[in-house]
Amino acid sequence: MQAMREEKRYTYSDYCAWDDDERWELIDGIPYAMSPAPSRRHQRILLELAGQIREYLKDKTCELYIAPFDVRLSADGYDDTVVQPDIIVVCDESKLDEKGCVGAPDLIIEVLSPSTSARDRVTKLNKYLQAGVREYWIVDPESKSVSTHILKDEEYVIRAYLGADAVVVHILDNCEVNLPDVFRE
Question: Count H helices, E strands: the chain?
């Protein structure tokens, strides 16, 4: 993702006026162009993750969404951060409107791409922590690993999983994601 090289800070209102043919994220008022369509491998991993969690969520109140889906993390008077994570789970229906999620989802999953890796590992991780996202996963297709960040006492507790493991979804009782299926070639 490339940041616009401007000093001006933007808000969600500005974001809504931009060309629908281009995808953007807005972090602390700075726009970042989204990369072209993700790779086949990225999509396969995303769909398997979403499929396993979706299967668990049948007949439950939490809802799952996949990108593109706007998440307005700083949905206050300034409203200057809008991200489009690969996968989100929202358990509080009052956070959903017709345009997306207003506030912190319960779970965010980002599947790394070469062009977004640094932003997902640092900038977004810090924004998600600041916003109070209860669980954040970073999925690395190259190393076939997942790092989970579980919010505890206003900090993230980090755990790493390798491709042969099952990952516990902490916000969902008795839900696990089977990584061998996620990383199957």
Answer: 5, 15
Query: Is 16 a member of any domain?
Result: no
CA distance 135 to 35: 25
CA atoms within 13 A on the CB side of 168: 7
User: Tens place of pLDDT for every residue, the chain, 185 residues?
Assistant: 445 545 788 988 899 898 777 888 999 999 988 877 788 999 999 999 999 999 999 999 999 999 999 999 976 656 899 999 999 999 999 999 999 999 999 999 999 998 888 899 999 999 999 999 999 999 999 999 999 999 999 999 999 999 889 999 999 999 999 999 999 98
Residue 17 lies in a domain: no
Give the whole-angstrom CA distance, residue 177 versus residue 167.
5
Say if 105 falls within a structural domain: yes
Does residue 65 sit in helix, strand or coil? strand
What is the number of structural domains in the chain?
1
Residue 33 belongs to a domain: no
